[in-house]
Amino acid sequence: MAAVTVEVEKRLTAIVGAGYLRHGDDRDGVDGLCPAWVVSPGNAAEVAAVLALGADSGLAVVARGGGAHLDRGAPPRAMDMVIDMGRLHAIVEHEPGDMRVTVEPGCTLGTLEAALAPSGQWLPLDPAGAPDVSIGGLIAADLCGPLRPSQGRVRDLLLGLRVATPEGRLVSGGGKVVKNVAGYDLPKLHVGALGTLGIVVEASFRLRPRPRSEHALVVHTTGAEETGRLALDLRDCCEPAWLEIVGPGLDPAPAGWALAIGSAGHPAATAAALAAWQHRVRSDPAGGEIELHEDGGALRAAVARAGTVATACVLRASTLPTQIGALLVAIDETANGQARLAASITGNAHAAFDDVAGALRVVRTLRPRLEGAGGALIVERATAAAKHVLHPDPGIWGASIGGLALMQELRRMFDPRNTLAPGRFPGDP
Amino acid sequence: MTASNLARALRAIVGDDGVLDGDEALLVYECDGYVLERGTPELVVLPRTPEEAARVVRLLAARQIAFVPRGAGTGLSGGTLPLDAPVMIGLSRLKAIETIDVRNRRVQVQAGVVNLNVSRAVKDDGLLYAPDPSSQAACTIGGNIAENSGGPHTLKYGVTVNHVLGVEIVLASGKVVQLGGATEDLPGYDLVGAAVGSEGTFGLITRATLRLVRAPQAFRTLLAVFARVDDASAAVSAIIAAGLVPAALEMMDTLILQAVEQAFGAGLPLDAGAVLLIELDGPEAGLDDEAALVETLCRRCASREVRRAASEAERALLWKCRKRAFGAVGRLARNYCTQDGVVPRTQLPEILRRITRTAERHRLRIGNVFHAGDGNIHPIILFDERDNDEVQRVLAAGREILEACVALGGSLSGEHGIGVEKIAQMPLLFAPDDLDAMLRLRRVFDPDQRANPHKVLPDSKSCIETRTPRRQAAM
To answer: What is the ipTM of this complex?
Structure first.
């Protein structure tokens, strides 16, 4: 072992203690890379010290929360060290009267939910596999689920962050109050940044009251195009809490196309919404059989997973809500029916592939069209083997990103030595 | 290049009537809604299109001249006060609503479009633009984006940043950049989120793509009357604790009630310690039930009377009182200034007590009209600008209130911005490393700091100047 390596190990051990440093193995792989070290700091100061040591030693560092979303982004050029955030898992402060919670990144959504439930509050972010998602991963990967059209995304609920920087500093931005315009909104930059601008050590979120009731419908439909149109008609008929389109082969309607629509809130309002939607569906040629779901939350959790599970890769396409039906048709045709498709009313579609060839064809064919119309088509997640096929040509992220030069400069300003997952983000060298 | 040369070059871009450089013409531009400090630019340029605005910035970039952007000038923190910025770029002529996409609920507007005009343009389609600052009949979308403006309905609907999908920025270098757009979920860092609330220091925002929301099907607007401010605060907590999310939850105290009653004669109780204006909105079903619950909770917190707006006219009158409260205060004193601190909602009774003590200590009259549901206070300090001693006490009281907000775990500003007014207090809220990170972000957009210099982040110049208040004030 080289002298420099021995020295790094010695210094890492001095920071976190011998029990919290180990050599990387198969469990720690990211995009086919295996880290030399996995370090588990026990507090924010240790995270900052470990990260600074990595930066000073010229190492490539990847932060890890629950580890479930490390396959996002372009493959890092190198990965010498993984910083595992699991030991920072405390719920620091929950003040029900302020409807605000401050939490560490290693805490999972499931743990947080359980802690918030007695107060009748929740953090209304419901990504696929929500209970196991860590708060750090939630922020870094900008995860959200069906509730997004009514409750917003991470950016809409995040109040403040504390972040460890590659220079070993702990920087705070935002605050703990629900309305705050003092200074620039640094926290927003870390949402969806895949850990490339710093490592989150603490986050504050606004909370909302849990709805008193949540009911939902599944409407079986005749095809993607009609489902997209019907979805908007139902939205305009009565505002849903969530509305997802699900293609063949997926729950809750494996046999064909369907939409799932939910209402949450006062029981009288949810009942009225469901009645209005049923009435509307019955008068629409695209509307088929209707299933009533008393437990709207359970259906929503199932629908959140639709289109996000694959053995090769998952693509995410972004377009305008009115184009969602046509987009699903185009993906389905280009993929020769090999993709499992789901979409949100917000204009985002997921396509899950077990064979990377179909995904490659979709990216090559549809990305230029989507980008030309102001949308995007990215490889959201992929196995190491699939990424090898998809990257660098045609690439994980796409060709047309507004403000790319500013993003590259931002990366240089916040991570001057390119320490944090180098190569992962759009525009990374 | 001399000033007249510059004016000539700018006139070639924006037309003869687009450059103001006479003393009289510039007087209007010597301050915004924050009147305690004043200063005029050497000239004001008023481009007619976003493209002209970009040409103006390119011309200034070539000559390395700093500029300050200005919308309608309704800002309350002095964000448009020129500090080392010879040129002010006024965006009031960029008032085209360029596209309205009803089905996708998007609108693309130029920066000078007045906030209320967006909602008016889509009213017949059952949509609205949710952020509704009290100045919405005058303030512009560009200014709203610069300040990340709020309004009474942010409790349920969020602030400007939650409704901006994309912006076009002319960087100080003259380069035009499109960030975000009509489609959600574009890859890369959330530069739109960072640009909203950047107070004109990232460049000149010339266009924006906004999200529209469905106009609520029904409203219940209630006015709850309390003998004591503390009881009104307790009612706010009770409503939140019950799991209700009113569209708005606003408080007005005695002094404000007297001012608005004099102005509008809405029949408000002049002997009340405080009233809460509470609005519930959404689908008709269940709304009466929720309104009844609000009423019960208010009465349980010693409200002596809860009125319900029985018609759209009554609702409009109540909102007129609330939104024009600032103007009505003009009847009580020659001048007033307002603070914009935020506290955690549970600290509302404490901050209100501290404000009362501050008013007594400095022998000032302070009224309160504010977004109680958000914990965003707006103490209005009354004064006479001809009384220099009183002006000094106003400034001291303002500082004390903001320091109290920060000490209670809050923030310096909920929706008005830092501008010059609160710049000296930034170190109370942020450590040097935090401010350094913000400075780096600023340099990403504007490395030479020619867009609205000496704002938001304290530097040697801004601090020296603001620590000597009223440097150019009309005394």
So the answer is: 0.97
